[in-house]
Amino acid sequence: MNIFRLAGDVSHLSSVLILLLKIYGTKSCSGISLKTQELYVVVFMARYLDLFTNCVSRYNLVMKLVFVGSSVSIIWYIRLHPIVWKSYDGEQDTFPHYFLIAGSFAMAILYHEGFLLQEVFWAFSIYLEAVAILPQLVLLQRSRNVDNLTGQYVFFLGAYRGLYLMNWIYRYFNDKPYIRWITWSSSFVQTALYVDFFYYYFISWKNNEKLQLPA
């Protein structure tokens, strides 16, 4: 454990708490992509197949349970909560996310690090996580005006991936671990997807204005 990984975990956890706070506190899921949340559930389910058979540490186990449980809870709120579901903008949240699932699975079959089924699903989860934010970013660009909590949610989610990328770089120079190219390349792609959002987030923060994304 190093400072970058710890900060990344805190940032990831913060994004989840902010999203739950927005939904629970305002009884609204306006600006939130259900498709992105569904993709994250698929990511966690595929990655944590060994959830109860390979416990690295209590910390690791708790974090996995939190991310799986929170993602399922968010989907429940958006789909089934008697008030929250009414604010979901399904007409704007139309990104064909099943293409992302199919493409990521095809990549996992072609490029994985082991011949075990679990290794294929691990690679699939890494590829899918790299692009899972796309439906959310597209939804924000379509709606343009982004409320404060939604903007913070996406910011911390992007910061988590950037910090994890710094974690891999730090470990390369200090721990000399085996380089997992799937993780490295996917982290670069995922971080790059947030660059445009980070730019407009910083501009809005600097000018003390509401976050607006270009169409």
From TrEMBL:
PROSITE patterns: ER_LUMEN_RECEPTOR_1 (PS00951), ER_LUMEN_RECEPTOR_2 (PS00952). It is found in: Endoplasmic reticulum membrane. GO terms for biological process: protein retention in ER lumen; protein transport; vesicle-mediated transport. GO terms for cellular component: endoplasmic reticulum membrane. One of its GO terms (molecular function) is ER retention sequence binding. It comes from the Eukaryota. InterPro entries: ER_ret_rcpt. It is a multi-pass membrane protein. The chain crosses the membrane at residues 61-78, 98-115, 121-140, 152-170, 182-202. It holds the Pfam family ER_lumen_recept. Keywords: Endoplasmic reticulum, ER-Golgi transport, Membrane, Protein transport, Receptor, Transmembrane, Transmembrane helix, Transport. Belongs to the ERD2 family. This is ER lumen protein-retaining receptor.
